[in-house]
Amino acid sequence: MTTFAKGHGTENDFVLLDDPEGRIDLTPELIRSLADRRAGLGADGVIRVVRSAAAGQDPSAEWFMDYWNSDGSAAEMCGNGSRVFVAYLLRRGWVSLEDGEELNIATRGGVMPVRRRGELFTIDLGAWKVAGGPPAVAAGSDVTVTFPGLPPLPGLSVSLSNPHVVVALPDVETLAALDLSVPPIVDPAPPNGTNVEIVVPLHDQSVRSELGHLKMRVHERGSGETRSCGTGTVAAALAARAWGGNLAPDHWRVDVPGGTLYVDAEGTASEGDSAKLSGPAVIVAEGELVTS
Ligand SMILES: N[C@@H](CCC[C@H](N)C(=O)O)C(=O)O
């Protein structure tokens, strides 16, 4: 009998599978069928909840977030998923966290600390880079991105533990009208695919603000358009921070279709060792899989 939970972080939704001792054979077919919104439970991603020791992962963190996109492909990291993962470990009583305490979790992108403050969870995603380094920052872009019906637009690649390309649009009407039903075409094509974030800055960029403010939509590698992407909001804030130069803040609010997330960046315009993502995590249901 396999028990599962359904949860979301700003409406980026996940099926979590209990597998503390690493007994489930999680095939791409099983992931796709669980994530299917008509014939399955429905989710943007599937997370196997497994002890690091049972999954051959870094044992310095007891629990491994085994994250998979809805198309069955593995990803290095999921920012929203990490908060939901820790909320679920707490719910199951598999970990305990006093208010303000941190828990290290293992991911394919490395071990990362998650802190709980009340209902809010903060993960430090660690090292990041604007992929082309200072030349890409100076030029403001290193790739072009083409959406249906639009000419190619400049995009800036940002590497967290997973890949991102960020595109800025001039206004929220253009953002709302964007067709994300098919993957945007990125040129040159990143070797391992990429997540694409499209942003409109909402704060006054002509003066230095304490808090940057972006509106964002996202097309996720392996999942299509989702209502939120945590690592995507961090990439978006890092790109906007690079574009903004001296006037750009380190603290950002990012509004996505599913809610609001906050980002705190550290480092130069092109690289750093810390980028924190804060937001909610909700567990909505628990149940048992019926196996045929
Ligand atoms: N939604 C996630 C990111 C999930 C992985 C992504 N689709 C990829 O393939 O890199 C988030 O909240 O960060």
From TrEMBL:
Q: Known InterPro entries for this protein? A: DAP_epimerase_AS (IPR018510), DAP_epimerase_DapF (IPR001653)
Q: Which UniProt keywords apply?
A: Amino-acid biosynthesis, Cytoplasm, Isomerase, Lysine biosynthesis
| GO cellular component term, pick one | cytosol
**EC number(s) of the enzyme?**
5.1.1.7
**Subunit description:** Homodimer.
Pathway(s): Amino-acid biosynthesis; L-lysine biosynthesis via DAP pathway; DL-2,6-diaminopimelate from LL-2,6-diaminopimelate: step 1/1
User: What GO molecular function terms would the record report?
Assistant: diaminopimelate epimerase activity
Q: Where is this site: Could be important to modulate the pK values of the two catalytic cysteine residues?
A: H164, E220
State the protein's name.
Diaminopimelate epimerase
Query: Which residues bind substrate per the record?
Result: N12, N69, G79, N80, N162, N195, E220, R221, G230, T231
The record's subcellular locations are: Cytoplasm
Q: Which domain of life is it from?
A: Bacteria
GO biological process entries: lysine biosynthetic process via diaminopimelate
Q: Can you tell me which family this protein belongs to?
A: Belongs to the diaminopimelate epimerase family.
Q: Primary place of residence?
A: cytoplasm
Which residues does UniProt mark as catalytic? C78, C229
Name the enzyme group at the top EC level.
isomerase
What catalytic activity does the UniProt entry give for this protein?
(2S,6S)-2,6-diaminopimelate = meso-2,6-diaminopimelate
The record's listing under PROSITE patterns reads:
DAP_EPIMERASE (PS01326)
Origin species: Kineosporia babensis
Function in brief: Catalyzes the stereoinversion of LL-2,6-diaminopimelate (L,L-DAP) to meso-diaminopimelate (meso-DAP), a precursor of L-lysine and an essential component of the bacterial peptidoglycan.
